[in-house]
Amino acid sequence: MTLSIAHLGPPGTYAEQAAFFYVNWLGKSAGVEASLCPYPTIAQSLQAVATGQAQLAVVPVENSIEGSVTMTMDTLWQLDSLRIQLALVMPIAHTLISYGTSLDKITTVYSHPQALAQCQGWLERFLPTVQLIPGNSTSEALQRLEQEVTTAAIASSRAAQLYNLPILASGINDYPENCTRFWVVSQSQTKAAHYISSTSTSHTSLAVTMPANVPGALVKTLQVFAQLGINLSRIESRPTKRSLGEYLFFIDVEADITAAKMQSALAELNENTEILKIFGSYNILPVSSQ
Amino acid sequence: MTLSIAHLGPPGTYAEQAAFFYVNWLGKSAGVEASLCPYPTIAQSLQAVATGQAQLAVVPVENSIEGSVTMTMDTLWQLDSLRIQLALVMPIAHTLISYGTSLDKITTVYSHPQALAQCQGWLERFLPTVQLIPGNSTSEALQRLEQEVTTAAIASSRAAQLYNLPILASGINDYPENCTRFWVVSQSQTKAAHYISSTSTSHTSLAVTMPANVPGALVKTLQVFAQLGINLSRIESRPTKRSLGEYLFFIDVEADITAAKMQSALAELNENTEILKIFGSYNILPVSSQ
């Protein structure tokens, strides 16, 4: 059987690299074959899973420098039928790709906004006058690279290799500890879910909205976890899109959903919150650099 | 005396519109003249204030649909010398601007990523096959609009007027209740600060980091406010950029910084947090649509 895995495309993105790593890891542990399916946006790669076009999607969640990937969070909240199966943490090293042979000829740099932001210090130091042009993905930026010495793109060294393009500068991200966390997402009820070994998991992700105009509602929610000794690893607010100042909160906690204390927490949250959505329990797999 | 006010440019952005509103309001109340100075990025408009090139900056903080403007938050955290003087809440109505006379000819749409995101439902419904090209600002997108019928840009109707460009569709944002909150920012110690009447203010903004590996540190911080009866209007996490999973928290509370309960809260926070930065106390001014 072949698993189809959706990811942000075109081929050569960091999401595809994470998907490759996942496929190798999966293949070793379960003898599974997979085909990777690129989509133009993160939202479309998640929708592909919701509609059954693909069985899994590998999507970026959060970068250690630039923070949350809001398109992933908002789409997960809107599509009710998805479940996180696994988290992958991958080191990110950007390269400057160009046909040019010296930095002083470059006038334009293309990339994904997250990659441009992760290299902004380097760009200010070495290319202070270039025009930065954001695009949909790092590998899409490569397709805008013309065969001339004045344009460059920021993407992975793997992408440069894939399209046979020359690297002008390596390791150009401002912080060496640059990591992105990805989630492997399936439909709530699919066979794909069975490919992930699920004894006990280390993390659970959920999101809540509070009743409007109840002061201290967020504190009460967080206290539920604190009082049960459940550690929060992340909290992220997003607008409900109803009115300015109304938020939903994405919360990651360090507990398996089937643990007794977690079941108590969820029972209490059901009482105190307006909407409670659970996105799944999963382990975190570090991705070794290649 | 003339106040110089920095904002995201080129002329025609929503930030410039908010700055105009502010200048009119200020002029009425204090007889002040002002000149507006466009900068290519939000970070540069804040840096202009830090370095004394401009006395004030008007910067977007948060949109009701797309959430936090992370460049504003990160730059405020990095530049220690800035102070929020006032918040402005402005309704946002996007228009599709093009020389084309019918939607079915359009193949490319330029805009700022926030504006593209705020219109994504409309774009999927009416222009499902177009290429979306993100840029640095809505008005910069207008400059990429060619004199032909296949390209369009999303910006304000005011920007269309300013550059004498035809509007093809109006009110194209997915949610009618689309608002952006802006901050008017000065140096901590400048005369500009005196132009803002500062009797009692309604909100205080601050940011904190917690000592690493202290479980429940965020809950303790929020409890400080809850126990003193201070309501939180917003909490936003951002990566510390040190390692994945380490955050700083931007917190807006509904209290004047000089209030006794707020002084108690800050004294307690000084004990429990690693870094505590206070960005100022201010009122919120609603911007009427023009």
In brief:
Chain A is of the alpha/beta class. Helices cover 29% and strands 34% of the residues of chain A.
Describe this entry's structure for a reader.
2 copies of one chain form a homodimer. Chain A is an alpha/beta fold. Chain A has 3 domains: 111 residues, Periplasmic binding protein-like II (D-Maltodextrin-Binding Protein, domain 2); 77 residues, D-Maltodextrin-Binding Protein, domain 2 (3-Layer(aba) Sandwich); 83 residues, ACT domain (Alpha-Beta Plaits, 2-Layer Sandwich), CATH 3.30.70. Chain A is 29% helix and 34% strand. Chain A has 9 helices and 15 strands. In chain A, the strands form 2 sheets. In chain A, strands 1, 2, 3, 4, 5, 11, 12, 13, 14 and 15 form a 10-stranded mixed β-sheet that branches. In chain A, strands 8-7-9-6-10 form a 5-stranded mixed β-sheet. In chain A, a hairpin with a 7-residue loop joins strand 13 and strand 14. In chain A, helix 2 packs parallel to helix 3 and helix 8 runs antiparallel to helix 9. The longest helix of chain A has 17 residues. The model of chain A has no long low-confidence stretch (mean pLDDT 90). Chains A and B meet through strand 8, helix 8 and strand 13 of A and strand 4, strand 8, helix 8 and strand 13 of B.
